[in-house]
Write a structure and sequence with these properties.
The chain is α/β, with parallel strands linked by helices. It is built from 7 helices and 11 strands. The N and C termini lie far apart (63 Å).
């Protein structure tokens, strides 16, 4: 046995830090910050461009909370652009360029497109003219998947609104007609956008979400410093990526600098 008195030992539970006086209330705190000169985030949180961390699912979750995720580049150019596109299409004030199909397409092909983009309905157009809408309600009891979309789509009494309709006006129209999707058309019945009840609800559920000027979630993506970086950047720009990050394992090398 050691000689002398046993020294005093403390654990975290034995210590209480006395808080200092503060005049700042939680409701007065703002965590907004700028990632770039033109890109503002509501919280200073960025998801890393790592293949074990950030793809579309995490990027959507981070953006809804006010931050931003960077889609990693350890995949093909096409797939990375698809991941960015999935984030941009996940929600919007008004979907400016909704996924559409032609009436001659088969029901089977339409279902494949709906599964790919994880959506429950598709506007049907001929050129830019709206001719109908195909939703899960139209397909619920259909067994013949080889028939054309035109045979099962809703084409009569379509509920539409004009370009410039506010989300508040759109919400009233959705409630009035008991529908989930509202088609936005111009004076010549060209499809200009789509407003969904889910997007309106998400705007309420995630009030500080990081969004672009069209109401779409913010998302970044990584590109390299050599190889296919230009082609990758161009494809990501077409998918409406908000910001690109040059991602390299060693920045202090001649080809990177």
């Amino acid at each position: 046995m050691a000689d002398g008195a046993i020294p005093e030992g403390l654990t975290f539970d034995d210590v209480l830090m006395v808080p200092g006086l503060s005049s700042v209330l939680p409701t007065q705190v703002q965590t907004r910050t700028r990632l770039t000169r033109k890109l503002e985030l509501n919280i200073p949180v960025i998801a890393a461009a790592m293949d074990t961390v950030t793809e579309a699912r995490l990027a959507i979750a981070i953006a809804r909370q006010g931050g931003i995720g960077f889609i990693h580049r350890n995949m093909s150019i096409e797939r990375q652009a698809e991941e960015v596109d999935r984030v941009k299409r996940s929600e919007s004030g008004m979907i400016v360029a909704p996924v559409t199909i032609e009436p001659e397409l088969s029901v089977r092909q339409a279902l494949e497109i709906m599964a790919k983009y994880r959506i429950s309905g598709l506007p049907v157009t001929r050129g830019t003219k709206l001719v109908g809408i195909l939703t899960n309600r139209d397909l619920r009891f259909e067994r013949n998947l080889d028939q054309p979309v035109s045979a099962v789509m809703t084409k009569d009494n379509l509920v539409t609104v004009a370009v410039g309709t506010t989300l508040e006006e759109a919400e009233r129209s959705l409630q009035k007609h008991r529908i989930e999707k509202l088609l936005v058309v111009d004076n010549e019945y060209n499809l200009k956008g789509l407003i969904t009840v889910k997007d309106i609800q998400k705007k309420r559920d995630y009030p500080i979400a990081a969004k672009d000027g069209h109401g779409r979630l913010r998302v970044g993506a990584a590109i390299g410093a050599t190889g296919d970086y230009l082609e990758r950047a161009q494809a990501l720009a077409k998918a409406h990526v908000d910001v690109l990050a040059i991602d390299t394992a060693h920045g202090h090398s001649t080809r990177v600098m």
